[in-house]
What we know:
Layout: E1 6-7, E2 12-13, H1 14-45
Antiparallel strand pairs: 1-2
Amino acid sequence: MSDPNKVWPTGLTEAESEEIHRQLIQGTQFFGMIAALAHLLAYIYSPWLK
């Protein structure tokens, strides 16, 4: 039958799903920092709203 350690519907264990979630959050934070830096550099080189 089905494995009681697996989380429906993905088939991952709870530990596996938490690891994927942690990596997703870290990737989102990394992307956000790069985007913020890019916006800062764009503002420095071509100030808008002035």
